[in-house]
């Protein structure tokens, strides 16, 4: 019972004011008692979760969720992916599920001063990753696809011990590893599993065997007690457009828990994190929770049997989990294919809407989002199956040419989809929007100027961090998976600092009363102004197609006609080849 601290806080403030002390100093002295009471009584994890949740609401324009009602009320192991947004992904899952999930976090991250403090406040379970402890070794290695590794100028007997991991350090096989079974000589090692054959001698690394028993024990106890544990089974964040192969750890966690606590009603829930642009401010994310998975009895019995059956059981369980992720994620070969299919989805949805409005206009915006996601996922799943067909190739070629035209004219597909043409009252629309922009500029431009220091610093830092992450990774493409995280982290520090500086400036030039109002209420104004900024920039972007219609009406009509023809062709081809089946 520390409620007396609250009473003392009010008492100190009131007493100092009665003796004529400065109000700010009086309140600061009283705040010490309030802060102490909060430290002793407020759940730090809940506070951190709330703050990060608000940050996510600001950073992302929309976080849509589907299937959260499928999540059981306890004993749940969340399998989350793709891991496209480093430290933001766990917050997205926490927010979408509404459950007190404890995530596994890399021990390397938890050793960081501030990131580690936040992770610990949220109850994260640390896991040491071998790749984080890998050290570069002397010489080069080659393999022929067997269990034998041949060294060139190596010192295997000095640098390795049985059970250590040997990692390929460069080239297309970078990041591939195998446990050491036997050290034959300084230039020959036998591994438990075969490494892929190498075309030329490659550099390599060594990491010691890590005892993960304490981590597995913590996970088992949390699940057995009715808790929620979150895992990103790819092993680390990345910016690829498809899932990386899952690590075996998640399957082992589930099986070990049921062996140790056989009465536990454990369920594994796949969680798909589908971002429109994971690194961009005010982008969207669609989170889908799949059907809960129960560990099959025969797999559990195999695991209990030990030996080769244990390994086989782990592989079978891992395959089940990874297969379940295909139902909750959108996976494509590369970024170019993703952009192509996103564009085709918009065109196809418009075409079907024209053909059957009842089918493509659900009653709510939520249903519309789900329908769009289902179409996109079906297009992505079926693309490899139909991309060789002549009709599909013809459609894809035309869609790409259409997008090239859009880029050349500087307009967007949704603007063409609105059927803006010379038949519209273009001049009146243009003048009206110019008037709105001029009026809104009075409010938006000062806000942009005030926010510009934070925007510039966060962009510079996040770009540098992306380059660092890319340099130290073998799976990242551009390092975009860390950009949003660093933008958010910089903003968490820089925004309060800027707010304090601006408050002092207001106090200096506008007086104490105005500064007090600014300090307490400007954050609310800033929050609601974000939507105004979105509308402001949307209006600015809309000027170019309007000008194009005025100055080049034939080209505007051409774009509309091309899209209309693509709508009809996309519906015909996609239905004809059963692309969405």
Structural commentary:
This protein has helices at 3-18, 23-41, 44-59, 88-97, 107-110, 113-121, 156-159, 213-224, 249-260, 297-305, 307-325, 335-355, 357-360, 365-386, 390-409, 413-417, 426-471, 483-510, 512-551, 553-576, and strands spanning 60-66, 76-81, 101-106, 125-127, 135-136, 140-143, 148-152, 165-168, 177-185, 188-191, 204-207, 228-231, 267-275, 283-289. With 581 residues, the chain is of the alpha/beta class. Strands 1-14-13-2-12-3-4 form a 7-stranded mixed sheet, with helices on both faces. Helix 17 (426-471) packs across helix 18 and helix 18 (483-510) crosses helix 19 (512-551). The longest helix is centred in the C-terminal third of the chain and has 46 residues, at 426-471. It is globular.
| Poorly predicted spans | 358-363
Q: In which order are the strands of the major sheet placed?
A: 1-14-13-2-12-3-4
Radius of gyration (Å): 29 Å
Biggest pleated sheet = 7 strands, mixed
How many beta-strand runs? Answer: 14
Mean pLDDT: 89
Helix content class:
55-70%
How far apart are the termini? 62 Å
Shape: globular
In short:
By secondary structure, the chain is of the alpha/beta class. It has helices at residues 3-18, 23-41, 44-59, 88-97, 107-110, 113-121, 156-159, 213-224, 249-260, 297-305, 307-325, 335-355, 357-360, 365-386, 390-409, 413-417, 426-471, 483-510, 512-551, 553-576; strands at 60-66, 76-81, 101-106, 125-127, 135-136, 140-143, 148-152, 165-168, 177-185, 188-191, 204-207, 228-231, 267-275, 283-289. Strands 1-14-13-2-12-3-4 form a seven-stranded mixed β-sheet, with helices on both faces.
């Amino acid at each position: 019972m520390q409620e007396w601290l609250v009473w003392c806080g009010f008492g100190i403030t009131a007493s100092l004011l009665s003796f004529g002390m400065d109000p700010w100093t009086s309140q600061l002295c009283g705040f010490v008692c309030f802060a102490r009471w909060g430290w002793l009584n407020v759940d730090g994890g809940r506070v951190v979760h709330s703050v990060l949740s608000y940050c996510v609401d600001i950073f992302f324009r929309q976080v849509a969720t589907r299937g959260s009602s499928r999540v059981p009320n306890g004993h749940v192991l969340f399998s989350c992916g793709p891991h496209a947004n480093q430290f933001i992904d766990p917050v997205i899952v926490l927010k979408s599920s509404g459950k007190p999930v404890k995530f596994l976090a890399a021990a390397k991250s938890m050793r960081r001063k501030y990131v580690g403090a936040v992770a610990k406040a949220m109850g994260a379970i640390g896991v040491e990753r071998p790749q984080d402890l890998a050290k570069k070794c002397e010489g080069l290695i080659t393999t022929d696809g067997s269990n034998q590794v041949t060294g060139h100028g190596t010192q295997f007997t000095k640098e390795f011990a049985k059970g250590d991991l040997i990692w390929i350090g460069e080239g297309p096989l970078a990041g591939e590893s195998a446990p050491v079974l036997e050290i034959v000589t300084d230039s020959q090692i036998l591994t438990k599993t075969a490494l892929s054959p190498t075309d030329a001698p490659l550099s390599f690394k060594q990491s010691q065997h890590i005892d993960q028993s304490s981590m597995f024990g913590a996970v088992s106890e949390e699940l057995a007690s009715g808790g929620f544990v979150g895992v990103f089974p790819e092993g680390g964040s990345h910016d690829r457009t498809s899932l990386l192969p899952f690590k075996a750890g998640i399957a082992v966690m589930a099986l070990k828990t049921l062996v140790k606590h056989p009465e536990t009603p454990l369920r594994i829930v796949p969680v798909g994190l589908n971002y429109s642009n994971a690194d961009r401010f005010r982008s969207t994310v669609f989170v889908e929770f799949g059907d809960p998975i129960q560990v099959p009895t025969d797999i559990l019995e195999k695991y209990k049997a030990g030996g080769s059956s244990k390994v086989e059981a782990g592989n079978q369980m891992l395959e089940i989990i990874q297969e379940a992720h295909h139902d909750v994620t959108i996976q494509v070969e590369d970024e170019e294919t993703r952009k192509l299919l996103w564009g085709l989805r918009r065109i196809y949805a418009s075409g079907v809407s024209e053909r059957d409005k009842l089918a493509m206009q659900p009653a709510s915006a939520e249903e519309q989002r789900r329908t769009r996601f289902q179409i996109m996922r079906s297009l992505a799943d079926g693309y490899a199956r139909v991309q060789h067909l002549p009709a599909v190739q013809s459609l894809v070629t035309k869609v790409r040419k259409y997008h090239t035209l859009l880029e050349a004219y500087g307009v967007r597909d949704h603007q063409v989809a609105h059927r803006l043409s010379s038949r519209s009252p273009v001049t009146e629309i243009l003048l009206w929007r110019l008037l709105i922009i001029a009026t809104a500029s009075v409010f938006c431009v000062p806000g942009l100027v005030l926010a510009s220091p934070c925007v510039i610093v966060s962009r510079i830092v996040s770009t540098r961090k992306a380059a660092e992450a890319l340099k130290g990774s073998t799976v990242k493409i551009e390092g975009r998976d860390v950009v949003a995280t660093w933008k958010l982290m910089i903003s968490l520090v820089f925004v309060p600092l800027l707010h304090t500086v601006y408050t002092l400036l207001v106090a200096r030039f506008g007086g104490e009363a105005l500064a007090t109002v600014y300090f307490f209420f400007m954050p609310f104004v800033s929050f609601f102004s974000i939507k105004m900024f979105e509308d402001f920039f949307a209006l600015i972007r809309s000027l170019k197609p309007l000008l194009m219609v005025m100055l080049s009406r034939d080209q505007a009509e051409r774009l509309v006609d091309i899209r209309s023809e693509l709508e009809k062709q996309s519906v015909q081809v996609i239905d004809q080849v059963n692309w969405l089946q």
